[in-house]
Amino acid sequence: MSAPLRVLIVDDERLARERLKDLLAEAGDMQLVGECRNGNEAIAAIDAERPDLVLLDVQMPGPDGFGVLRALPPESPPAVIFVTAHRDFAVQAFEANALDYLLKPFDRERFRQSLARARDRRKALASPLDTELLARLEALTRRPPHEPERYVTRLVARVGWRMRFLQVEDIDYLTAEGNYVSVQVGKQSHLTRETLSALEAKLDPKQFLRAHRSFIVRLDRIEEVEPLPPGEYVFVLRDGTRLTSGRSYRAQVQRALELPT
């Protein structure tokens, strides 16, 4: 049997935490590693416990749920299921690569469906592709040798036990998930077994911009740019997604977008 999923509960309401604990106890492969009442406790607990899954409220004292996510390092983040009574944050939650969005009140079956997503995610991360097959598939993503460009035109991603080709022209942005990368294509995200730095070297810099240590964005998806005082920029994409660049990437953002220095 595989090790249980280590779960952290974050909710400022005691009764909500108790119900989540009762529901987790009904699943035989979940291990509760802690519970938190506010955002500051959550950030500290995630850093200390390194849970596989966080059941995260949105509105609570201190940093809210999205503030908790922003405070976490991009390396090996836990899976997150938002559990909230507020329906207005669903789009923002999925933009933050949340695994699911549970709207209170929910029933047992809906909760089981969320846990099933967490199990599927771990299977996808823990089950490497056949090495020879992956090498052949990756070779297919490159241009023919007679063409001068060395950049890929397709990426290989995991979809359960299957493999899917993602056309580079369809990609909106890519975000780091430890030794994996989440590739956003429209409303869907796919995991590919590479680091963000490795993919950066494979993507055409005329089409893609590394603007943060945790994300790469496709240039023609950027609709608006909002400068921030510390030297950062907020990118507003065509679909409304907002991504904030890192300060150390200021110069290359300005070059790529031809912004004033």
Structure description:
31% of the residues lie in helices and 30% in strands. The protein is α/β, with parallel strands linked by helices. It has two domains: 5-126, 3-Layer(aba) Sandwich (Rossmann fold); 134-257, Beta Barrel (OB fold (Dihydrolipoamide Acetyltransferase, E2P)), CATH 2.40.50.1020. The strands form four sheets. A five-stranded parallel β-sheet has the order 2-1-3-4-5, sandwiched between helices. Strands 10-9-8-12-11 form a five-stranded antiparallel β-sheet. The protein has a three-stranded antiparallel β-sheet with strand order 13-14-15, with no helix packed on it. It is globular.
Enumerate how many helices there are, as a single number: 8
Tell me the β content: 25-35%
Q: First CA to last CA: what distance? A: 57 Å
Structural class by helix and strand composition: alpha/beta
Order of helices and strands: EHEHEHEHEHHEEEEEHEEEEEH
Give the number of domains.
Answer: 2
CATH topology of the largest domain: OB fold (Dihydrolipoamide Acetyltransferase, E2P)
Strand order of the largest sheet: 2-1-3-4-5
Sum this structure up briefly.
The protein is 31% helix and 30% strand. By secondary structure, it is α/β, with parallel strands linked by helices. A hairpin with a 5-residue loop joins strand 13 (222-227) and strand 14 (233-237).
